Amino acid sequence: MRREDLTAAESHFAFGDNWASYAERIAEPEIDEAVRGLSRLLGGERLDGKRVLDIGSGSGLHALASLRLGAREVVAVDLDADSVVTSRAVLDRHAPRGGWRVERLSVFDLAAAGLGDFDVVYSWGVLHHTGAMTRAIECAARAIGPGGLFVLALYRRVWMDWFWHLEKRWYANASPVGQRRARAAFVALFAIRLRVTGRNLAEYRRDYRRNRGMDFEHDVHDWLGGWPYESITASEVDALLTGLGCVPVRRFVRHGKLFGRDPGVFGTGCDEYVFRRPSDHPGRLPEGTS
């Protein structure tokens, strides 16, 4: 039996369809929140005059946030053709004066594409969906120029990973009816959990857009369908990137309490990391072993 290539676009969940639907809602409040989220990761610094690579641009919202923070040039890449179209449309609408380009490109082909080095390489919630996360991180890191930053977010390892691995593979191949039923069941159970903790779903939905400018419904679909799926611990991220010569700058990591891990019963979130390539690092970062 031929083994499925999880790095190929046809084996992935249709993230682009979800982003196209979400992009219709993007307005100034969503853009402002995306700018705040990116600024937090940058430690409050701006991007004036810097060259930024956005890997897995999705809707184009965070490429736009980079431009709002002063980036001189933003190169946005995504493997999903629909995401490329959506990113271009969003940037055309909100940043018509340019300073950006969007290409359909895999993270594994960055070096061959000859894009050069970047002051900031940004990839939020993407590399764990590539089908070869460790290699994807290594490929992305090698695009950082001397003194540049690598800003990334990855699924934290949770106790329920085994379940979400099976669920996501099923959901990505399920019919639209099956997907709707799965979303309805997930939301109903999540509403019960909120009630137990003294909250309610209506309030949760209203507040949700404060989280990176996203919305609850699109994120539920994205979470349940996010195949391929991998996760990683903070210590593994540190070991991998320091092994490539990068230096940790800051991170936002949550630790769980079940068997030393976040249980992840209603899914896992992303831990966020910022690393820097030292200015005196000679040449390109070393090739990985994976």
Structure report:
By secondary structure, the chain is an alpha/beta fold. It has two domains: 9-157 and 229-276, 3-Layer(aba) Sandwich (Rossmann fold), CATH 3.40.50; 161-225, no CATH class. 41% of the residues lie in helices and 17% in strands. It has eleven helices and seven strands. The chain has helices at residues 15-23, 28-41, 61-68, 81-94, 110-113, 133-141, 161-173, 176-196, 201-208, 216-225, 234-243, and strands at 51-55, 73-78, 100-104, 118-124, 144-155, 247-252, 270-276. A seven-stranded mixed beta sheet has the order 3-2-1-4-5-7-6, sandwiched between helices. Helix 3 (61-68) links the parallel strand 1 (51-55) and strand 2 (73-78). Helix 1 packs parallel to helix 4 and helix 2 (28-41) crosses helix 3 (61-68). The longest helix has 21 residues, at 176-196. The chain starts with 14 loop residues before the first helix and ends in a 14-residue tail after the last strand.
Relevant terms:
2 domains, alpha/beta, 41% helix, 290 residues, 7-stranded mixed sheet, globular, Rossmann fold
Number of domains: 2
DSSP helical segment count: 11
The overall average pLDDT, rounded, is 91
What is the CATH class name of the largest domain?
A: Alpha Beta
Task: Report the biggest beta sheet as strand number plus sense, adding barrel if it closes.
Answer: 7 strands, mixed
Give the number of DSSP strands. 7
Using only CA atoms, what is the Rg?
A: 19 Å
SS-based class: alpha/beta
Query: Order of strands across the widest beta sheet?
Result: 3-2-1-4-5-7-6
- Which second-level CATH architecture of the largest domain applies? 3-Layer(aba) Sandwich
Taken from the alpha-carbon principal axes, the silhouette is globular
Low-confidence stretches: none
Task: Please write the string of helix (H) and strand (E) elements.
Answer: HHEHEHEHEHEHHHHHEE
Looking at CATH, which topology of the largest domain would you report? Rossmann fold
Which homologous superfamily in CATH is the superfamily of the largest domain?
Answer: Vaccinia Virus protein VP39
Distance between the termini: 24 Å
What is the helix fraction of residues, given as a range?
40-55%
Oligomeric state of this protein: single chain
Strand content is 15-25%
